[in-house]
Amino acid sequence: MLAQAIRKKLGKAGKEEKGFTLIELLAVIVIMGIIAVIAIPMISGLINNTGDKADLATARQIYEASRMYVTSELDGSAGSVTINIISSSAANSTTGATARIGLQEKKYLEDPILLPSTKTEITGGTVVYENGQLKTDGAITIFVDGSSTAKRTYSAAQILNTKL
């Protein structure tokens, strides 16, 4: 009742206001802008970090495939060997070069295998063992786009500390 009396005095008899004022709308827009400025870099960093972790998990799967290869094809003794992910060039009778069969051709890896972060096909690479252990630096090298310059290289520590 008091509210109605005040409205009559102020000239707003029976008229209900609906909606927001311009100031309220601008305040909401400013707050949303501040949230966007903070959230966008965090989200893009999270996406990049996820891609890197997915690539590392793929390298770990390649390592596990190479371990199965060593166990079944090399009787468990890796020694010092470089294992191709995909086979190298075919045997050449004139130069005496021999074909090196890769993990994909031996069916230890799927064909094709993609790098998760870029969705590009892995076109080559190696897993390197020294004295029966994964090489400390450059243990796994992955090539993409058919180029030896577009590559990812992982150390033994990175591979062995990755959880699948």
Percentage of β-strand residues: 15-25%
* Biggest sheet overview: 6 strands, antiparallel
Tally of DSSP β-strands: 6
Low-confidence runs (pLDDT<50, min 5 residues)?
Answer: 90-98
- The portion of residues assigned to helices is 40-55%
Q: Provide the domain count.
A: 1
Q: Please state the oligomeric state of the protein chains shown.
A: single chain
SSE sequence, one letter per element: HHEEEEEEH
Broad shape: rod-shaped
The rounded distance between the terminal residues' Cα atoms is: 70 Å
Count up the helices.
3
Rg from C-alpha positions? Answer: 31 Å
Structure description:
It is a single chain. The chain has 164 residues and is of the alpha+beta class. The protein has one domain. The chain has three helices and six strands, in the order ααββββββα. The protein has helices at 2-10, 22-73, 156-160; strands spanning 81-84, 114-115, 120-130, 133-134, 140-144, 151-154. Strands 1, 2, 3, 4, 5 and 6 form a six-stranded antiparallel sheet that branches. The radius of gyration is 31 Å and the shape is rod-shaped. Mean pLDDT is 82; it is low at 90-98.
Using brief descriptors, characterize the structure shown:
rod-shaped; 164 residues; single chain; alpha+beta; 3 helices; 6 strands
Summarize the structure.
This protein has 164 residues and is of the alpha+beta class.
